[in-house]
Each structure stands twice: as C-alpha cells, then as structure tokens.
Amino acid sequence: MDYKETLNLPKTDFPMKANLALREPEMLARWEAMRIYDRIRLDAKGRTPYILHDGPPYANGSIHLGTALNKIIKDILVKAKNMAGHDSVYVPGWDCHGLPIEHRVDKELGDKKAAISQNEKRRSCRIYAEKYLDIQREQFKRLGVFGDWEHPYLTMTYDYEAATVEEFGKLYLNGSVYKGKKPVYWCASCKTALAEAEVEYRDHRAPSIYVKFLFISDVSERVPKLAGERVSVAIWTTTPWTIPANLAVALHEEFLYAAVKIQGEVLIVARELLDRCLDAFGIANEPYEIVAEFHGAALEGLKCRHPLAERESLLLLAPFVTLDAGTGCVHIAPGHGQEDYETGMKHGLDNYAPVDDDGCFTKDVKDFAGRFVFAANDAIIAKLKETGALLGQAELQHTYPHCWRCKQPIIFRSTEQWFISMEKNNLRKKALQAIDGVTWIPAWGRDRIRGMVENRPDWCISRQRLWGVPITMFYCKACESELMTQEILGHVVGLVRERGADVWFDQNPGDLIPAGTRCPKCGAEDFEKETDILDVWFDSGVSHAAVLEQRDGLVSPCDMYLEGNDQHRGWFHSSLLESVGTRGRAPYRNVLTHGFVVDGEGKKMSKSLGNVIESQTIIDQYGAEILRLWVAAEDYTEDIRVSEEILKRLVEAYRRIRNTSRFILGNLYDFDPAKDALPYAERLEMDHWILHRLQEVIRRVREAYEQYQFHMVYYTIYNFCTVDLSSLYLDVLKDRLYTSQAGSLARRSAQATMWEILTAMAQLLAPILTFTAEEVWQAMPATLDKAESVHLAQFPEVDAARVQPELAEKWKTLIALKSEAAKAIETARQSKVVGHSLDADVTLAAPEQLRSLLETHREDLRALLIVSAVRIVDGPLASAPYLSSEIPGLAVAVERAPGEKCHRCWIYSETTGKNPTHPTLCQRCLDAL
Ligand SMILES: [Zn+2]
Ligand SMILES: [Zn+2]
Ligand SMILES: [Zn+2]
C-alpha cells in the first residue's frame, strides 16, 4: 500500500520561479489601482512625521544605475520609516533649468536658434525638460519606488520660480549679495561662468615656460652686491596666455633666494631650486657665480618691467609660494586666478583680465587681440623669445579644470558677476556652526563639508544664459545704481507666480516695476533690468523654501537629505548656504551620503572602458527586485560594486529566501490562523526556540533600519533564512509536518510558528524586496486583521514574553550537539553502516550535567538529529565512538537502527510490522492515521 496519500505534503500555488521581469509590472498595476501611496498616507495620519527631502535629479536623459541606487535607498528608508510607525512622505523632485538642457535645445534648433525669441527658446527648454521628467518618472516607478508621483516638485513651475526669485531678493535685501568683478571659472565654448560643482579635473597637456622679468628698480639698494648688474627675476607658468595680464611677481617672505650671475646677467630664483632651474633653462653647463643670497622679504615692493607690455610688474610677498616646482617666484595675474586675485586685492592691484566671453584677447592686448587664448599660447611664447624674455620651454601633462558639459578646458577669468558673500553677514561662520548641529552619516561627511565651506570663495550665482530663473534686479538708467526694495520684490514675485519667470524676459522694465517707482538716488523713472540668470545650484538650493516650507505635511528643517557623496560640494552645500543666509540655520537635521557605482574590480564605470551596466538591463534580465536586493546588500557608504558575478550571487540569495518562503507557504495550505493557531504557551519547545530567534532577528533588523544599515537588514534576514530556518528548523520540522495527524498539536504548533515567522519576514523585508514580500503576503492565509498589502502593515514588535534566553542557551547546546552527531553519522555513512540519517540509531555518552539536559530532551533530540532513535548512556561507549573535540566529554556512537523501516515515515522501529492490517507501518504512523 502507498501511504504517500496519507502524508500532509506541502501544497502551494506560490511559484518556485520568480519570473520577476514579467510579474513586477502586474504588481505595479495592482498597487496603482489600489492607490497604495495614498493608502499608506491615510493610514499614517497622526503618526510622528519623518521627512526625507528628495534631491532633484536633472531632467535630462534616462536614469542610470547610480540614479536608480539613490532612489532605491531613499525608498527603502521611507518605507521602513512608515512601517516603523512614522508618517513618512516622499515628494520626488526634478531640477529642470540649466545649461545641459539649453545646450540640447540649441542643438535641436540649429540655425533657427538665432531667429526665435528668448521666450520661444525657453518654451522649447520647458518641453524638453517635461519630456525627460516623464520618462524618468516611469523609470523610477518601475523600480517599485512609492511616492507622490502625480505631484512632484519641479524647479520650473511658476510657484517654484517665484520662490527662487523671492529667496534671491531676501539675500539681496539683507546685504549678502553683491555685484563684483572677480575671477570665475569660465567656459569659453559654453560662454558662461561655471560653479565649482560644474568643473571636472582632467589631464591636459600644457606648455611650461620660464620667463624673466627685468628689474626697473635699483636692486642694489636692497642687495648692494648687485650694483651695476643687469638683474631679472625668473618666473614659471603653464598658462602663457595669462602673461599679458601679469601685474606682479610673488616671492615667499622666508625662502632663501639666490642671485646667480650667468652668461653676463643676473637671474634670481629660489636657492633650493637653482640646479633644477638652470637645467630647465638649458644652461646647466655654463659657468656661474652666486653673487648674493637673501630672503624673499628683501625684494618686496621693487618693480620689474612687463616682458611684453609697457607696464610695471610689482614684486610682492605671498604665503602660497612653494618650492614644489618652478622657480620660487610666482607670476601673478589677478584677473585670472583665485589666489592671484586675493593677493592683488591686498596690494591694490587691478582685476585685469583682457579676455572676452569667447575666450579671446580684447583689443587691449597688442599683437594678440581677437585670438583665442589657448591658441595664442605659441604666439606668446614666440614673442617672449623674440624679446629675449624666454628662459626655457617644455611641455607638461597636468590635471586642469574642464567644463562638465562640453569637456573643454576652461579658463579663470575676471568678469562682472553676482556673488553671495561668505563674509558680509558672517555666512561662512554661521554655516560652519550650522554644520556642527547636523548629524552627518557617515561621520566624515562633516569634515568634508566643513573643509569646503571653510575654504570656498564667495558664491558666484550669475550665469549669462537663458534657461533659468532671472536675477531680478533693476538699474537706474540715469545714475546706474541698483534698485531693489521689499515692495519691488513683492511685486516681481507676484508677477512670476502668476506668469512664470518668462515674464521677466518678455516685459519691459517699466512693466515689471511697480508704477510710479523713482530712483531713490536721482529721482529718475527710467530703468533697465538685469539679463543674467541664476546658477541652477541656487534653484535647487532653495527647495527647502519652495517645497519644504510650502507643502502641507512638509517642514524645514526636515529629517533627512540623502544623496551621493559628491553633493557635499553640490546640493547639501548650496542648500546649507541659502538656508543659513536667509534663516540662520541648516534645512536638514541629518545628511546621509552614499558612494558611487563601480564595476566588480572597483573601477569607475565609463563608456570608454566598456564596463557600464545599465539599470534597465538588470531590470529586463532579473527584475527590479534584484536591483533592490543589490542596493540593500552592499554597504553603500563605500563605493558600490556591481558585476555579472555579484548579480548572479544575489539571484542565488534571492532564490533561497524565496524558496524558504515557499516551503512555509506550502505547509500552511490547511492552516486557518483564526481556528488553528495554537496559543504560544501550548507549543513545542523547539518552536519556542525559533520564536526566540525570531525576536532577536526583529530587534536586529529594526535597529539596522533605524541606523540606515540596510546591508545588516539583508544579512540578518538572509542568515536567519538559510542557517536557522532552511538548514535547521524547517528541515527538522518536515517529519512533524508531514507525518503527524493534520490537526495534531505537534503540527499545529509548527504551523502557527511558521505562519508567525513568515508574517514577520514579509514585513521586515517589504522595504527591500518590495515585490516579493507582497507576493508572499498575498499568498498567506487570510485573517480578519490582515492588511490588504504588506506595505500597509507595520513592522513586528519584539515580544518580550517570547524572549527566552535560558531556553535559547539550552537549544544552543542541543544544536551544537547536532552538528557533532552529524559528523559521527557522516563517518558511519562513509563506512556504509547507514545510508540516510534516518537509518541511524545514535548513542550519546556525556558528562553528568549535559546528560540530564539530553535526557529531558530525548524526543527533541531524535527529531533534531533526524535519526530513528537516540539513546543516552552513563559511562563509556562500547563500539567505535566519535569523541567530540567541541563538547568536552561527549562521545557519539552510530549503529544501524534495529527494527523495521516504516513505509510512511521512514523511521525504523520495533513497532513496525506488529499491525496485521498495516504491516509496514510504525505505531506512531498508525496513531496518526
Ligand atoms: Zn563648456
Ligand atoms: Zn538714479
Ligand atoms: Zn511511521
């Protein structure tokens, strides 16, 4: 007779194969239909808010793996907060203005570009941004990210633009903003100033030249030994095109300089660099004499002649002069460098930059006017040679700033720009204080942003482009003074809120300024408007004002800003300065950063290396769930690796979690929680043990979520699944589940326990395995209080009554004993004493204390060891014992179990064969039938 029919074998529709790429879209449609995000919001009403403010991605192109990673981390956090008892909203945002879109639109417009109006072009930019934000929105939703996708914030909506105008006005009116001539990063091909964050450092070949500046002053007044000599100071530069703008030469006050007589003239260089310099000048073999040595301070205030122009060059002292390279005498062009500018300011030098927007010399520069600066390098070198000023020349490979958009090398150029001063209202000091009040995760983020704020120059906020928010400033036509008041600001903000920033471009100044406005200085009534627009980093930097302070349910400061760790320089930074500059505090309480996606070897992904993995490829091949698992499994505070191999490993891990869930579901087919859930107190001891373990898992996982350590969430659950459940608890349970009477206490105890475990696991995994947790949830037995979606459930709480450390300690010993016994059984299997472990009869000899534990758990042990019988003896074992090295005094003997094998449960027993109707069954099975 076949007794298979009498076993309670698992039954489930839950598929083994996940088929994620196919099933996920169905799940998304279901959530959309039930309006899952709104439902979560509704349930969360009244709970403590937790506000993560989305950093807006740029509305251009498709999302890449890094963007997907960022959105998934945010989604895990928001979902976890909601399930941990918070009210956590997620309002996604997009950054819509700026050069990249304007570039694309320029390209698409081609020749038509010149013929259309400013606002026609702005309209094209708006349409372009709308198109890509729609594309990206669908891509983000596909990842399983929940949020208010129908009402995102966009930096180009009228109300956002109005808020941006208002924030600029606030800063202007409180005296933080000024217009000044200052060197800024300038891209000549994009014809715009660039922000710090828009500059990339890349390798660049540059000419390296040495030039002498002949003294006009009588040097012998300071260094008498140089009387009667023709004396020059030697400088070094890698930007020959800045020589026409040279106004000074800087020395270090304390460095020792040498005046060297060589080939009939005297050259001054740093003493320490003398040999290297002579080598570089190609005169290392010439006889020379050091006429004098002196400190840099000796030459301060003397004057040289400019090598190309009819002009003086001032000898001054500067602390940034080093002996790393060059001559120790530094060429200073205040219009073309930050340090040069600061030094020039100190010495009353002009901000001279004879270069126009196209990067060409102005007519001020004789011989080179109209020439592009990089192209003029050679001609300048030739001219220096001709005048005899060139000492040496070479080529150099160095890192040089490039434009992030067009990838061209940029220049530093002094122009009229708008700035937010770091000093005027103590912005730097206040920002540093605000940084200390924020929690930075990881902690090094604090030092990083501190260092940047400590050293940054004033924030250049003006751009000479079209697609952005205008700098709303009026000028008096008669006296040229700036005009902005609270009243004018309010008027302009109102216009922008109503008609968008376009209003600034298509209206005359007279229509933008309140009627009857007069210049307070000269009384004139005729005005001009500013044509520059704001830096896009200013746009996104005001999101705390435009979004957090405006929307219902949001507030500034919020709980969390969460972006890649390049944003210490970008969005965290601009948001901080804007908020501190207008509100005196940071807009966030916590800032969490993640690293960047790199390949399996830790290399940056790039098209040229051919190692780019697209998020869409992963979704198509494995499903978004695997992408989500990858995000959770990696420690994102470092750079995050991805490769085929890593993904395959995750797919395998996913399968194990899925199969564990499936096994449990299969054994709950006849379990109705309302009727069959055996009370905790009546359950078997092993079930109490696994429920104790579950409490530990709940505690650890909830802590890990609380600390944003999602990889700890993953590993804790994964280990629980594979180690505790799959290879131990569930394996042992099979006999009890399959062979016991369906409604028996033993089986119901196991079912109730498994049901609770799977419920908790689905809840704990839901923020990460958003799709699979839901699939499991839907397959779980229904109860009256079961939420319609796992995402509407809350995390399980640790049940203190089920935390049983003493019981856990006992079971730790029993499980350790199981692994020792397994070794003995394995030896017996190899010597063909037994085949399956159920063939075994195990005899244990143990010291007194352990023995009493074993004796009270003899039946548990038989089940735990998955053998036919366990005997516990006092004293030495007769035959071939296995002596444990792990548990002192434990000896294990394995023999073939006596009696007959039961055809139903495969356990050997003396009782098998005693029943005439069922001669192949054991008594246990007979009782069960
Ligand atoms: Zn450029
Ligand atoms: Zn005036
Ligand atoms: Zn049996």
Task: Write structural notes for this entry.
The chain has 929 residues and is an alpha/beta fold. The protein contains 29 helices and 34 strands. It has a 6-stranded mixed beta sheet, sandwiched between helices. It has a 5-stranded parallel beta sheet with strand order 2-1-25-26-18. α6 runs antiparallel to α12, α10 crosses α17 and α19 packs across α20. The protein is elongated and about 130 Å long. The model has no long low-confidence stretch (mean pLDDT 92). One zinc ion binds next to α29. Residues 187, 189-190, 403, 405-406, 408 line the site of one zinc ion.
Question: Helices and strands in order, then pairings?
Answer:
Blueprint: H1 20-34, H2 36-44, E1 48-53, H3 65-83, E2 86-89, E3 93-94, H4 99-109, H5 118-142, E4 153-154, H6 158-173, E5 177-187, E6 192-194, E7 199-214, E8 231-237, E9 248-251, E10 256-262, E11 265-270, H7 274-281, E12 288-295, E13 303-305, E14 312-317, E15 330-332, H8 338-346, H9 373-386, E16 390-403, E17 411-420, H10 427-436, E18 439-441, H11 444-455, E19 459-460, E20 462-463, E21 474-476, E22 482-483, H12 486-499, H13 502-506, H14 509-512, E23 527-529, E24 533-534, H15 536-541, H16 543-548, E25 558-564, H17 571-583, E26 588-594, E27 597-599, H18 615-621, H19 624-633, E28 640-642, H20 644-666, H21 673-676, H22 685-706, H23 710-739, H24 745-765, H25 770-779, H26 805-830, E29 840-845, H27 848-856, H28 858-865, E30 869-873, E31 882-883, E32 891-896, E33 900-901, E34 908-909, H29 923-928
Parallel strand pairs: 1-2, 1-25, 3-4, 8-11, 9-14, 18-26, 25-26, 27-28, 29-30
Antiparallel strand pairs: 5-6, 5-17, 7-8, 7-16, 9-15, 10-11, 10-12, 13-14, 17-19, 20-24, 21-22, 21-23, 29-32, 31-32, 33-34
Helix pairs in contact: 3-19, 4-5, 6-12, 10-11, 10-17, 18-19, 19-20, 19-23, 20-23, 22-23, 22-24, 22-26, 23-24, 24-25
One zinc ion binds next to loops.
